[in-house]
Design a protein that fits this description.
With 235 residues, the chain is of the alpha/beta class. The chain is 42% helix and 16% strand.
């Protein structure tokens, strides 16, 4: 596909790893990456939802953010703390202020309390290419706040977000430019792509579309006939 006419920017998608749990670890002087910690809404209710689990807790016991308090294993090494939403919002604001040191406010686009896009066009002469900028921001967030993050780099928000979800959460930083789409994204099952939910996945699977490459190569008129405007957006 010819992408030469497409807008091209240096967009970073920054996702704070296990944000709530990591903040609670840092508050207690604990390592967010090795400590097993769960954040719950109410410690007095056994059915309370686990709002966040540290990476070590997820890896060792398979705890998920949708698990319930009573489902936690009886491991004395697990810290259980109640959520302090004010602290998390404040930390999110501190991260945004840090980013303001490098780009104007209009270049920062919050997606949630722990995830945001930042457009870093024009920073090459000062700090190097987009990967160097991402590494610099990643290091500074860790050095000043003790928090780790994953960063996806792309020509637009979609590419930055998807490569962050699929690759950067494992490697720390990952890049997907237009020319990388066929290699990095087309082999991916559609249900793993940001913006495609379970219901839409079911409909696409019934059309024989299982992987993103099949969606990219499907006939546009058939997608439009089946899904209307959504079909064109998918294409």
């Amino acid at each position: 596909m010819d992408y030469s006419s497409f807008p091209k920017h240096n967009v970073l998608c920054i996702d704070m790893r296990s944000f709530y749990a990591s903040i609670e670890c840092v508050k207690r002087g604990l390592d967010p990456m090795t400590t097993m910690l769960a954040v719950v809404g109410d410690k007095n209710r056994s059915g309370s939802i686990i709002l966040a689990a540290s990476p070590a807790l997820k890896q060792r016991h398979g705890v998920k953010n949708v698990s319930r308090y009573f489902e936690l294993p009886k491991d004395p090494a697990i810290y259980v703390v109640e959520a302090k939403m004010g602290d998390y919002v404040n930390m999110s604001m501190q991260i945004t202020k840090l980013l303001h040191h490098y780009v104007p406010k209009e270049a920062i686009h919050p997606y949630s309390v722990d995830e945001m896009w930042i457009t870093v066009d024009g920073l090459e002469e000062l700090y190097g290419d987009a990967h160097h900028v991402a590494q610099m921001l990643k290091d500074e967030i860790y050095d000043t706040m003790g928090l780790t993050c994953a960063i996806g780099i792309g020509d637009n928000k979609f590419l930055a977000k998807v490569v962050m979800d699929l690759y950067a959460k494992k490697t720390g930083i990952a890049t997907c430019r237009y020319q990388d789409v066929e290699r990095l994204l087309w082999p991916v099952p559609i249900e793993k792509i940001w913006g495609i939910g379970k219901q839409l996945t079911t409909h696409l699977n019934r059309m024989g579309i299982v992987y993103l490459g099949q969606l990219a190569n499907h006939r546009l008129d058939r997608l439009q006939k089946r899904f209307g405007v959504i079909g064109e957006q998918l294409y």
